[in-house]
Amino acid sequence: MSSAAVNYYDLLQIHPKAERETIQRVYKIFAARYHPDNRDTGDAERFRLYREAYEVLSDPSSREAYDLKLEVAQPEALPIFQSRDFTEGIDAEAKIRIGVLCLLYAKRRANPDYAALSMLDLEHLMSFPREHLQFAMWYLKAKKYVTQDDRSSFIVTAEGVDYLETQLPGNDLLYRIFQASESGVMVYPKALINTKNR
């Protein structure tokens, strides 16, 4: 995970309007889990990202600058969706549907209070035009795997979560998509790097 690809709110699994006390409490939990001295779950790179997110979001001026950039940012395409798995073969359409579900699952899991992705977000994250995604979205809505909120953005349902979790065992593609879209990787442009003063 590189800081170029991290939405700090998704990374910390907090709402964009979270108060400073919430940011501090959540950061302490993740910092303890990923601190390099933790023999069981330590991860120096993840710890660095959590510390960076905390430093930006806990400082009012840094957070304000970050929020302004985040407001106008569009997510970048995840490289996995540019592979042949999603563009060739008779099962490419089914893989696109699985990809959409994985992104919505990751978004809900990362931040349940801010769990929706718009069609524009999906276009950017998957690098497919809207017309290419419309059949997938019709199918997922008809199966009740996704629903739409009052702004017409998409949210995974409990049925969608159950379906994904039953497909997970032994499915290498699913694991790769989950890895690419894990918590904090709803991707935004490089303009979001180094939003804090150094």
Short description:
The protein is mainly alpha-helical.
Based on the model shown, name its key terms.
198 residues; mainly alpha; Helix Hairpins; Arc Repressor Mutant, subunit A; 2 domains; two-stranded antiparallel sheet; 9 helices; 54% helix; 3% strand
SSE topology string: HHHHHHHEEHH
Q: What order do the strands of the largest sheet run in, or round the barrel if closed? A: 1-2
**What proportion of the residues form beta strands (DSSP E)?**
under 5%
- Give the total of domains: 2
Which blocks of ≥5 consecutive residues have pLDDT under 50?
Answer: 1-5, 183-198
Architecture per CATH nomenclature, i.e. the level-2 architecture of the largest domain: Orthogonal Bundle
Reported for the largest beta sheet, the result is: 2 strands, antiparallel
Question: How many strand units?
Answer: 2
User: Roughly what percent helix?
Assistant: 40-55%
Kindly identify the CATH topology of the largest domain: Arc Repressor Mutant, subunit A
Note the overall shape.
globular
Number of helices: 9
The CATH first-level class of the largest domain comes to Mainly Alpha
Give the averaged pLDDT, no decimals.
81
**Alpha-beta classification:** mainly alpha
Distance between the termini: 21 Å
Write up this protein.
This protein has two domains: 3-73 and 187-192, Helix Hairpins (Orthogonal Bundle), CATH 1.10.287.110; 79-180, Winged helix-like DNA-binding domain superfamily/Winged helix DNA-binding domain (Arc Repressor Mutant, subunit A, Orthogonal Bundle), CATH 1.10.10.10. A hairpin with a 5-residue loop joins strand 1 and strand 2. The chain has helices at 8-12, 20-34, 44-58, 60-72, 92-110, 119-126, 130-142, 158-167, 172-180, and strands spanning 146-148, 154-156. A two-stranded antiparallel ribbon has the order 1-2. The longest helix has 19 residues, at 92-110. The chain is mostly helical. It is built from nine helices and two strands, in the order αααααααββαα. The radius of gyration is 17 Å and the shape is globular.
